[in-house]
Amino acid sequence: MERLPSREPVWDLEFNEKGLLTAPATDEFLREVDAEDITDLFIFSHGWGTSESSAKGLYATMFPSIRDAASGVPDINRVGFAGIFWPSLWFPDTPATPPRPEGSPQSGDSALEEESAGTAVLSGAEIAASLLPGFEDPQQRQSVTKIGRLIDEGVAAVGSGEPDTVKEQRLQQLNQLLQSLIPPAPDGEYEDQGETAVLLTDDPVRDYQAAADAFGSAPPGSSVQGIGDWFSKAINGAKDVVRVFSYTIMKARAGDIGRTGLGPLLVALHRDSPGVRVHLIGHSFGARLVSFALAGITTPADSPVASLLLIQAAFSHWSFAHAQDNPFGSPGALHNYADRVHGPLVATFSVHDWAVGRWYPKASFLSRQDTQAGIAGRWGGIGADGYQAVSPAADRTMPENGGVDYQFAPGTFYRVDAIEVINNVQDQPFAGAHSDIRKPALAQLAIAAATTHP
Where do the structural domains in the chain lie, given as residue ranges? Predict the structure, then answer.
């Protein structure tokens, strides 16, 4: 345990990829929380591609900001903080094309560049090097390294005269290695499994080319060139498929760590320190982690969770949905666990979040089944438009200057439009404003949620 300069306690909660709390020891953490006699514990989880140093930087900014926002608020007394550290994968930044402005011309000399994630510029070695720190198992690390090598061998073979049968074998081998690394999909999480269509394909020659089309990685003119150019398109598409793979691994890990690691820890905390109110905050895939912690809490009576704040969440906006108006025709995976939160369930969204709004749904491009009008996209994320098909629900707008007067009510889902705050897309051609969250307005939102009690 460490302390802020103002003496509030701060814990680093380190989980491995299996959901095991590796530091501190569970009993040590529980004893320390009890000894500190705090009333409100804010637990924050970082999101995708976050190194330990970056996560520490996030918490070092947001914890004092939350403390400042709580200053003088009658309903918040003695506060403490816990930052979660978990092995999220990092995929290299790419020079994606920014979104086209609405109404912009798209024909003739004034046509804008085709939408592209920019993945084609990466080498296989760069991709593998970025993924390796997220894997502990030696055999899995060997597979990741081999995936990178196969991509680079494929790039070198473009235009070389290598027989198509050899090229197809390389894609099949790459496909088999990826599939060997994919964890089994949990039952009942249909809304978050759209990308499995491309990852579990039995025809990588066809579907890797489709991935290149979806992510804009096809070589210029490939759609009209000869049949011999198919491999250039497929090998670039393979890079996009590995990006999709990284999303899938992070989503699965976040869910596992929340369900089997953080959830039971919260039950134990409530048992030993029943007076502590826990406020869960998660960003990106970290929002999935803290949300799935609810599924690891046995009953509402066992839960210390007083509020839930999801900041630009990178998981399905149907996860808390009821069956009605849900395109999957059944309740979302977390529908039955919302009652583990005794206060409000709050989620921000922003049109400037290109990672969730543009690229996240594209990971499910082979599973598109959106035939019903009048509903949000089947594969959309919470960070794009908030919770969908939930009740009771209400909409809020985050003021540019922040504040705590949101008039939240316990047990209600809130979609908070953060367009005036989460909006800095500078130097982030792929993610946009996805990580533009180190701002006082978000700390104030956390306090607004935390002070809403039953």
Answer: 2-88+251-450, 108-249
Of 113, 98, 180, 177, which Cα lies nearest the Cα of 145? 177
89/95 Cα distance (integer angstroms): 19
243-271 per-position pLDDT tens digit: 999 988 998 999 999 999 999 999 999 99
- The answer to whether 365 and 115 are in contact (CB under 8 A) is no
Structure tokens at 259: 């369900």
Residue 389: left (phi > 0), alpha (psi -120 to 50), or beta? left
pLDDT tens per residue, range 178-214: 999 998 877 767 677 778 888 989 999 999 999 999 8
Fold for domain 2-88+251-450? Rossmann fold (3.40.50)
Q: What is the DSSP string of 290-337?
A: HHHTGGGS-SGGG--EEEEEEES--SBTTTT--STT-TTSS--TTGGG
Q: What is the dihedral of CA 406, 410, 413, 416, to 10 degrees?
A: 10
Task: Please state, in angstroms and rounded to a whole number, the distance separating the CA atoms of residues 347 and 381.
Answer: 11
Helices 204-215, 164-181: crossing angle, 10 deg rounding: 80
Coil vs helix vs strand at 199: helix
Q: Compute the radius of gyration of the chain from its Cα atoms.
A: 22
Phi and psi at residue 348, to the nearest 5°: -90, 155
Give the predicted TM-score (pTM) of the model.
Answer: 0.93
Q: Residue 112: CB partners within 8 Å, gap ≥ 6?
A: 97, 100, 104, 105, 106
